[in-house]
# Entry
Amino acid sequence: MALHHRTAVVMSGGMDSSTLLWQLLDEGDECLTVTVDYGQRHRKEIEAAQQMAAICDVPHRLVNVAALSQHLTGSALTDDVDVPHGHYAEESMRATVVPNRNMILLAVAGGVAVANGCDRIATAVHAGDHFVYPDCRPQFIESCSATLAIATESFGDVTIHAPFVNITKAEIAARGEVLGVPWAKTWTCYEGGDIHCGRCATCVERLEAFDLAGVTEPTEYADSYSWRQVVASPPESVNG
Amino acid sequence: MALHHRTAVVMSGGMDSSTLLWQLLDEGDECLTVTVDYGQRHRKEIEAAQQMAAICDVPHRLVNVAALSQHLTGSALTDDVDVPHGHYAEESMRATVVPNRNMILLAVAGGVAVANGCDRIATAVHAGDHFVYPDCRPQFIESCSATLAIATESFGDVTIHAPFVNITKAEIAARGEVLGVPWAKTWTCYEGGDIHCGRCATCVERLEAFDLAGVTEPTEYADSYSWRQVVASPPESVNG
# Structure
């Protein structure tokens, strides 16, 4: 019989973390979800995360650390950048404006896990993130998990579970489709509109994943521009 | 010639972190100080940290993460506890109400370090902390430093410097005395009074360190009760 886990799932409201939640519940984990808000998230993302937790009838914790942002920018970085367009692999993504973002996120989730009697946290980092973010690589997750286990020794060695770390976003799309993730209720876009723009880096990444997985999903996109076209010839500017 | 470091010093305003700042500046580091407020610090602590930075003419960053506290407590823990009296080694200290506190603190300091072009962060954890907090042990610091270095690879591998990790608080007192740390301007007490109570766990720890180091310091304490008496016979209650 498999070990029963009580898991704090790091939840952005996007397709990856939603699939992770569905998978862990399918495997029998008792879950709660944690969303960390750096003050940069659009309402849509947070609402999607809350909605995913509500659909699964699991508790949701929204942790606001917006006050961090002002201290996590400096001369080398800026928080006053436009949302990048084009393919995610070619652009500096929004997340890069919060240095050490993933370690802070996992440390906070570790604290929430301890406070709620969880034995592990789960993150949906995947293979496509590796070459964009150093803090999404398998070696980072392993090291961070070891660090968290030492820190939480008195609470039963909380560790990090990252089952997607060596699979692609397309494989996540395929898994989520089988598990019945309600795609139209997940939120990915960085633009902050009423519907997905279909053109920002994360929308392009999402469209690509579903396309490669052969999944037809019901999400409405403002721009029907194909992700293949974006990758082949990134637009100079969408708005200007 | 020694490598020049630009260091983000984790600063509580107490005797340990103040000595650390004085030592690093003495060694030629370019420093900035970082105080993380979990919403539990008394004004006195924060003012002491700011004052130490001002005396040394180094920048100070106060990072407020008070919003975390409500999520970092749960059934197993409570934030509604009285300040423990007696010896620090026998009592559950205030810090235990923020689970995974040190990892969150170091992750945040790592972000501040990156944003300010620092190549390392420094923490004043010392040998006396080891058996009280798992996240103050040398193996935690080593693991956390490795994790931070991986996460910050794009910014030159920020690491953690913990020069006091294997020395006692009494040795820190002796070092600080030589370096000329203005003890009366540091702040240790958890009670929130106008002057140090002389009786709470951290005051007792402070008095013990100065006594063992043979350092006479000018701090005023409300209670002249000897730390030796407290350790020998902890008072049941001071206020009741």
